[in-house]
Amino acid sequence: MPPLWTKPSFIGLPDEKPQAIHAKRKKEVSCILDESPRFKVVLTDAPYADLRYEEEKLGNIAELYRFNCRSEEELILNCTDADALLVTYAPVTRRVIDALKKCRVISVYAIGLDMVDIQAATRAGIPVTNVPDYCIEEVCDHAMALLLAAARKILSYHLSVVMDGQWNWQMAKPIYRLRGKTLGLIGFGKIPRAVAMRALSFGLQVVTFDPYVPSEECDQAGVRMVGLDDLLQQADFVSIHTPFTSETKNLMNEDRFRLMKRTAFIINTSRGPVIEEKALLKALEEGWIAGAALDVLSIEPPVQNPFLHMKNVILTPHAGFYSEEAVETLRTTAALEVKRVLTGQKPEHLVNPDSLKCGKHE
Asked: What CA–CA distance (Å, rounded) separates 192 from 237?
């Protein structure tokens, strides 16, 4: 495979004058642009009605192939000879990566990277990119919307009026004043910091747990750093904002749900497997906590999930990232990362720089 970051050079014959060499180079460059190789770019599982942003950025250098891959087998079947992958949720595992014969880049339509085996990609010398800041405002707003809907029991009122024909404010008792309550943020990256700003404007006190953030940064944001157990014991609302890793899998388990207030709500706009769902179900059924508002689940879309039938659970379909503006940024940025690599440039949002140390890039 040719080096990723080098550009073609053109050398004239020894007896050619500089002007002739320059003209020849210009002509050769033009020919190469006109007859450039058509790379194969596979969109493994893009959930979009059209490919206008991808075609705009890649149409002049690549053929786009769109699939709806959900398994390793489907990915291997359709992606083995791809020059680049654009990935949404499809599981790009070590087995899939080992089957990629000439892949130059895996570009992920997301901030999180739990769908790609980064270590395997690095060993294979394949750069992986993400879109690290495309939906900060959207996820933040969604988390606050879920918090407010839970606090004011909006869904309960709506169903009571529309489905049961009741016009009765007392049916959702008790509801407590929001100002003065405590919001606990698990994680304190860009999104929870934006959530904290909004929550403080509502008069909430905000605490956070994040072992990778200095307490001074929390102090500057008007947020108090506490231990995880303390956060769960103090918070009236617990909002999860962690990536999904081996450390955070089932972070919210039965022991931790038992620490929460009986009047507390849990909100998750990060990744479903951060919550052990059997433990959450038990906490809801037995009244350890008041309710849950979830934008993500361990299995999406849900199949025979008991949360679908619980009155104290609000569900949205992994929509926290969405706005028209965010989707345009996401798709454009992901496609541009593919274009950069395929045209010999370095990607801007490379998450595994060690992949470039592989011999094939030297």
From this structure: 13
Cα separation, 272 vs 318, in Å, equals 9
Residue 154 amino acid letter: I
- Rounded Cα distance between 254 and 3, Å, is 51
- Strands (E) across the chain are located at 39-43, 62-66, 84-87, 105-108, 128-129, 182-186, 205-209, 224-225, 237-240, 265-268, 291-294, 313-315
From the list 152, 224, 318, 361, the catalytic residue is 318
Is 271 part of the annotated catalytic residue set? yes
Token representation of residue 89: 């949720």
- Spell out the residues 6+ positions from residue 247 whose beta carbon is closer than 8 angstroms to its own: none
Give the number of C-alpha atoms closer than 13 A to the C-alpha of residue 257, restricted to the C-beta side: 26
Nearest of 258, 261, 295, 300 to residue 280 by alpha carbon: 258
Nearest C-alpha neighbor of 114 from the set 246, 275, 210: 246
The alpha carbon dihedral of 113, 142, 269, 304 has a sign of negative
3-state helix, strand, coil in the chain (%, to 5): 40, 15, 45
Name the active-site residue from 16, 73, 285, 300. Answer: 300
The answer to whether the beta carbons of residues 240 and 266 sit under 8 Å apart is yes
pTM of the model: 0.84
DSSP string, 147-208: HHHHHHTHHHHHHHHHTT----GGGG-----STT-EEEEE--SHHHHHHHHHHHHTT-EEEE
The pLDDT profile of the chain, 362 residues, written as one tens digit per residue, is 433 333 333 333 334 444 443 444 444 444 444 445 699 999 999 999 999 999 999 999 999 999 999 999 999 999 999 999 999 999 999 999 999 999 999 999 999 999 999 999 999 999 999 999 999 999 999 999 999 999 999 999 999 999 999 999 999 999 999 999 999 999 999 999 999 999 999 999 999 999 999 999 999 999 999 999 999 999 999 999 999 999 999 999 999 999 999 999 999 999 999 999 999 999 999 999 999 999 999 999 999 999 999 999 999 999 999 999 999 999 999 999 999 999 999 999 999 999 998 745 44
Catalytic residue (one of 193, 241, 271, 349): 271
